């Protein structure tokens, strides 16, 4: 995808897409091929503020177009910088799509080593946002606490600041390769399930009717309570009151994660 000489029109356009990564890359492709002057993005069927004077266009996700953009990026910048764009998309920060689009335009502009041009505000923001998402990924890898269910499934509920579920597959598939597990993002209502063979995305029904007749004892394995008590006692015994530094502790383990940590219950 060579677009360094593309001249864009002056008429502002709001691009509406399906909210997926491939959808966003498709929007990038169409914006170049149709020479749109993109002033913003919106997700189909989701309320958002838009430019009153801008024309709204709807993009249909096309994997072939998305792949052309992705392969073109890999020719312009190192792989890590391509991944940074994906992490930014996972941040779900309002308006981040326009930052990603502007950064991609700059990467295709013909400058040498454009990924190192931190004087460009879009390149800088992509770098900073990617780091925030990457830190959240590592926190989830450290703070996930599995609980064993009655049917030998290891379940963990999480509520990360960013949508890091797609970044957790490899770590947990390698570390817990001999177990069936499910990591579920309670905030975003989807998760990843591993059956000792592959990882796949799933959604669950947590409606009141679905769980009305199910008690906690019916859900968890008989040994789960014992293991949780042992884990809690371990942390209690290794805690030295005279060396307690709450401020430092909160820096490493922010309070927003505590409700999902067994040792904090």
TrEMBL record:
DUF4130 domain ranges (all copies): 97-263
InterPro entries reported in the protein's UniProt record: DNA_repair_put (IPR023875), DUF4130 (IPR025404)
Annotated Pfam families: DUF4130
NCBIfam families linked to this entry: SAM_7_link_chp (TIGR03915)
Name this polypeptide is given: Probable DNA metabolism protein
Species the sequence originates in: Dyadobacter koreensis
